[in-house]
Automatic annotation (TrEMBL):
PANTHER family: MUTATOR TRANSPOSASE MUDRA PROTEIN, POLYPROTEIN, PUTATIVE-RELATED. This is Uncharacterized protein LOC104738409. Keywords: Metal-binding, Zinc, Zinc-finger. InterPro entries: MULE_transposase_dom (IPR018289), Znf_PMZ (IPR006564), Znf_SWIM (IPR007527). Residues 492-502 have a biased composition (Basic and acidic residues). It holds the Pfam family SWIM. It comes from Camelina sativa. Residues 475-502 are annotated as: Disordered. Residues 482-491 have a biased composition (Basic residues). Residues 397-429 form the SWIM-type domain.
Length: 502
């Protein structure tokens, strides 16, 4: 690790060992007037590796702060390949321990941002370059989505923590092995009508509107408004965790959260009605709230489209948390990190799926094994050629293998045989794997990842940027945030909330 730190102006020197002038070689003392105080331009050079100590990594001053500072970590691998690198507090500690100098949090924060840009080869003040990077499509087409993936897209917005603020909008699908399959990323000033509308318009370029397509999100009003405008045929569902979170927040202590969860997961209408009735008895206000949230949007058996077992926006949240550190970077390094992450995921999935020799993907095979165990002691009776009555713990279900339905509702909803269908298929000695949807086959799984996610493989001066993009003047937004400490929101799980509500 190498750190090079330069100060300009009145940084209080509390016993630093080296005082170096910016305009000279860094190992010369800058205290030429011998008054024991640092000169106007003071550079401190810090290195844990002494042999590299005399490498000057760069110079940088910030005109808009009184005591600017630079920290470069170009030689280390920090901030590359998804590594987190030093956090502002680490930088403060390093400088304090090594030199006895105190940096403010914002100095360390600015330094880190500068270092990230340097490491990733991003010139400063490059806001206008964003558009030029964006015209480079890194993925040839979103073909994987149409190779039999579940037509459910989970969308979510999250804050960016770079100095220009803004939000990142994410849209992701989930593949047949329950892995995230990101569709689109967008960066906007905030989550408002026009940004969500713009984002859905961009998605629509690659994912067409379709009655079999579903979107899952939180209850952000701009999301529903934009979807109704742009994806007219698709169905919109809301994240059940989000809904339960609100129930707990606004209707505390009623103990209804578990019931809401059960009602939302009901596969049959009667089952839903039973739970919903109980909710309304305990708390009529919650009942009203849930009706206001539109039953067809949060109850599985009332949902008009297919959502399979996807009833939360967890998938999008996982992407956001995988990008926790890059979300602190400025836009191009952020995009670069996203591209890197996708390249890595695609390679991992290609290798994993190539190894799968069983008839279904790993996660679905596991699911089926669990269901085999659960249905072991069921009794089945044949009704028709492929129709069976299955007696399970005193409740009877009717399975139609050919039509891929079971009166429990799970078979047709998830497109994977439920425990009753599995038991039935076993008893009549038929191959149960033919009753799982093709999207769960290793062949489909491999097809999703056939494409590669490519970096921009040519130097900047050879980029073929269209004239109108080249000519566009893109300025950073005016909402520049003071680079102070940003409090990270503690991630509270739904389980935490349910626990807290009791
Ligand atoms: Zn069933």
């Amino acid at each position: 690790m190498n750190l090079c730190v330069t100060f300009k102006g009145g940084v209080e020197d509390v016993g630093s060992k080296f005082k170096l002038d910016l305009n000279k070689e860094p190992w010369f003392s800058s205290d030429e007037d011998g008054d024991g105080r640092p000169n106007e331009n003071l550079a401190l050079f810090v290195g844990t590796d002494d042999t590299k100590r005399n490498v000057v990594l760069g110079k940088k001053t910030f005109d808009d702060t009184k005591t600017p500072v630079m920290v470069l970590e170009r030689r280390s691998k920090n901030y590359e390949g998804g590594l987190e690198g030093h956090k502002p507090n680490d930088i403060i500690n390093i400088i304090r321990t090594e030199y006895g100098c105190d940096l403010t949090y914002s100095q360390a924060w600015e330094s880190r941002e500068y270092a990230v840009n340097e490491v990733r080869g991003i010139p400063e003040n490059s806001y206008g370059k964003n558009t030029k990077v964006l015209v480079h499509d890194t993925r040839s087409e979103s073909g994987g989505f149409y190779k039999g993936m579940r037509k459910v897209i989970v969308v979510d917005g999250t804050f960016l923590k770079n100095k220009y603020k803004g939000v990142m909008l994410v849209a992701t699908a989930v593949d047949g092995n329950s892995n995230l399959y990101p569709i689109a990323f967008g960066i906007a000033d905030s989550e408002n009508d026009s940004s969500w509308e713009w984002f859905f318009e961009q998605i629509k370029v690659v994912i067409r509107d379709d009655k079999d397509l579903s979107f899952i999100s939180d209850r952000h009003v701009s999301i529903s408004k934009s979807l109704e405008k742009i994806y007219l045929l698709s169905t919109h569902g809301i994240c059940i965790h989000h809904l339960i979170g609100n129930v707990i927040t606004y209707h505390k202590g009623r103990g209804v959260a578990d019931l809401v969860s059960r009602a939302s997961k009901a596969y049959r209408v009667a089952e839903f009605e039973k739970h919903f009735g109980e909710i309304c008895n305990i708390s009529p206000v919650t009942g009203e709230y849930l009706e206001d949230a539109q039953v067809k949007k949060w109850v599985r058996c009332h949902f008009h489209g297919y959502r399979y077992d996807l009833n939360t926006k967890n998938a999008a949240e996982s992407i956001n948390s995988a990008l926790r550190s890059p979300r602190e970077y400025s836009i191009i390094p952020l995009l670069d990190s996203i591209r890197e992450m996708l390249t890595r995921w695609f390679i991992e999935q290609r290798e994993l799926s190539a190894k799968q020799k069983d008839p279904l993907t790993v996660k679905v095979e596991n699911k089926i094994s669990r269901r085999i165990g659960k249905g072991k002691y069921f009794k089945s009776y044949r009704i028709g050629r492929n129709i069976l009555q299955v007696k399970a713990n005193r409740v009877d279900f009717v399975v139609d293998l050919e039509r891929r339905t079971c009166s429990c509702g799970k078979f047709q909803m998830g497109k994977i045989p439920c425990r009753h269908a599995i038991k039935g298929a076993f008893d009549i000695c038929t191959d149960l794997y033919r009753y799982a949807d093709d999207m769960y086959s290793p062949t489909s799984w491999r097809e999703y990842y056939e494409e590669t996610v490519n970096p921009i493989g040519i130097p900047e001066n050879e980029w073929g940027v269209p004239d109108h993009i080249e000519a566009a003047k893109v300025l950073p937004p005016e909402t520049r945030r003071h680079p102070g400490r940003q409090r990270k929101r503690r991630h509270e799980t739904v389980e935490d909330k349910i626990r807290a509500s009791h």
